[in-house]
Amino acid sequence: MTNDxxxxxxxxxxxxxxMSPAKRRQVARKIGIELRKANQSRTAAQSDADGNAFVxxxxxxxxxxxxxxxxxxxxxxxxxxxxxxIGFGGNAGRIARIHQEGQLSEIRPGSRKYPYxxxxxxxxNDDDERLIETAFRxxxxxxx
Length: 144
Description:
Low-confidence stretches: none
Order of helices and strands: HHEEHEEH
Shape: elongated
Number of strands: 4
Radius of gyration: 17 Å
Number of helices: 4
Helix content: 40-55%
Mean pLDDT: 82
Number of domains: 1
Largest sheet: 2 strands, antiparallel
Strand order of the largest sheet: 1-2
Structural class: alpha+beta
Strand content: 5-15%
């Protein structure tokens, strides 16, 4: 996905510019948490932001991929007053990057490297953009 948050409506950017840095961080955190929930539910459903199903792994029958790394301790939200970043940290980040980009990696340490199919764990779709706009609207209503 190549969506850019700078493409959000002008009214959202205009409101953000009038907020204090602390308030923007608060909104960024709330938006980040909501985006994390959206990405967690898509990952649990084994699909990407566009609704495409992940390529199934070779050995898994009833063991869904990415069950552990989508826990909040691995799936981090880092807000600032100008942006919010959601992503995976540590070893979970390495595993997520391998799948997100379809890289070569070992299945077990010391084994032969295999190509992993692209499985887009992080992405923003139209529903997520509406979620961001709704969060801004709710913040406006909460301030009135």
